[in-house]
Design brief:
Blueprint (H helix, E strand, L loop, with lengths): L1 E7 L2 E6 L9 E10 L2 H8 L16 E8 L11 E4 L2 E2 L5 H4 L10 E2 L11 E5 L3 E3 L5 H4 L2 H13 L7 E5 L3 H12 L4 E5 L3 H9 L4 E3 L17 E6 L4 H7 L3 E9 L13 H6 L3 E4 L7 H9 L9 E5 L4 H9 L6 E4 L4
Parallel strand pairs: 10-11, 10-13, 11-12, 13-14, 14-15, 16-17
Antiparallel strand pairs: 1-2, 3-4, 3-8, 3-17, 4-5, 5-9, 6-7
Bound molecules: zinc ion (2 copies).
The site of one zinc ion has 6 residues, from helix 4.
């Protein structure tokens, strides 16, 4: 089968590899849609989590059809459309026993430490499979990023009547926007440098949009003079995170969701955190939120179709990674290996 292989840091190849066969507790999934993520760039560069995974077939946001199943697989059949939770926790370590599997000490992940979805076929344990029936493979492939967003909202919940400020109107920012809306936010302001992304944020329910290129930096306070109950960074820009603290209402929360460079540092005033009762909350990946995520997409509660900007064949993965790195992606880029 054809697959993208990261052979070493910064060495990407598209080549023929052996097609997997299902073990007793696994299925082989024919990959229909596989989302490209900024963390794929981190994995390609070598700042992955865990031990040396090379050579690795990346891709952790994928859906497909079951084409072969092992003899112990009970709840899924050949031809079923499935979405895949890529997280494979050990189930035995300190964090797994606390139900904090995203911090598993022996973490494995499809497309992260073992073969993932930028290939024609993938081996998936039954435990990682989820059914869906009403949406396309592309729409369902956003279940993994949405599961991360949902985990963020469990960590920093939006309550009825809250004011919410979101930095970044990329695919993740737009998912945060929709989740905040459904959680009962009264006022959602979205900030981004690109006009077309802000227009889409408006269509998906933002009350106010701000372009810092055209307006003053503090203009978000026009729409909520006391600040915001929840401020979400979905940019991964250290400067944005640093600047975000001043938009948090007293006793409000700053959600650090975007992935900043590992060696970046910011300056914030500990006195301000103390004096204003501010919560700063990190969000790492997803944790048992995949089931809710695929259900919200399948039932049409969260619109993932509008968040997808491009559908590419496997050969264009290098271009997709380049577009993401240069900030040129209009939204989520989805790879279809059988296109
Ligand atoms: Zn991702
Ligand atoms: Zn564990």
């Amino acid at each position: 089968m054809k697959a993208v292989v990261f052979e070493a840091p910064n060495a990407l190849k598209i080549k023929e590899v052996k097609t997997p066969r299902a073990g007793d507790n696994e299925v082989v999934v024919k990959v229909e849609a596989s989302g490209v993520c900024a963390s794929d760039i981190h994995i390609l560069k070598g700042d992955f989590i865990g031990s040396d995974p090379y050579p690795l077939i990346p891709g952790h946001e994928f859906t497909g059809t079951i084409v072969e199943k092992g003899k112990n697989v009970k709840n899924f059949d050949v031809n079923d459309p499935v979405a895949i939770d890529p997280v494979i926790p050990c189930g035995k370590c300190y964090y797994c026993k606390r139900n904090e599997q995203n911090h598993c000490i022996n973490f494995n992940g499809l497309g992260d430490t073992i073969a993932g979805g930028f290939a024609e076929y993938v081996l998936v344990p039954e435990a990682n499979l989820f059914h869906f029936e009403n949406v396309s493979f592309e729409e369902a492939s956003l279940a993994e990023p949405l599961a991360c967003v949902l985990y963020g909202h469990k960590r920093a919940p939006v309550h009825l009547g809250d004011d919410v400020l979101i930095f970044g109107a990329g695919s993740l920012g737009l998912l945060h926007l929709q989740v905040a809306r459904h959680s009962g936010a009264a006022n959602i302001t979205v900030c981004d440098l690109k006009k077309d992304k802000l227009a889409l944020a408006g269509e998906l329910g933002a009350d106010y949009v701000i372009n810092p290129r055209e307006e003053e930096e503090d203009s978000a306070l026009k729409y909520s003079p006391q600040g915001y109950d929840v401020v979400i960074d979905a940019t991964g820009s250290p400067r944005v995170v640093e600047n975000a603290v001043k938009f948090v209402k007293n006793k409000g929360t700053l959600m650090v969701f975007g992935v900043c460079p590992q060696d970046a540092t910011i300056t914030i005033s500990p006195y301000e955190i103390y004096r204003r009762d501010i919560n700063i909350v990190g969000v790492f990946a997803l944790n048992r939120t995949f089931g809710e995520s695929i259900k919200l997409i399948d039932k049409g509660v969260i619109n993932t179709k509008r968040v997808i900007s491009d559908i590419f064949p496997l050969e264009k993965l290098p271009l997709a990674l380049e577009m993401i790195e240069n900030g040129e992606a209009g939204g989520k880029i989805v790879i279809k290996p059988h296109l």
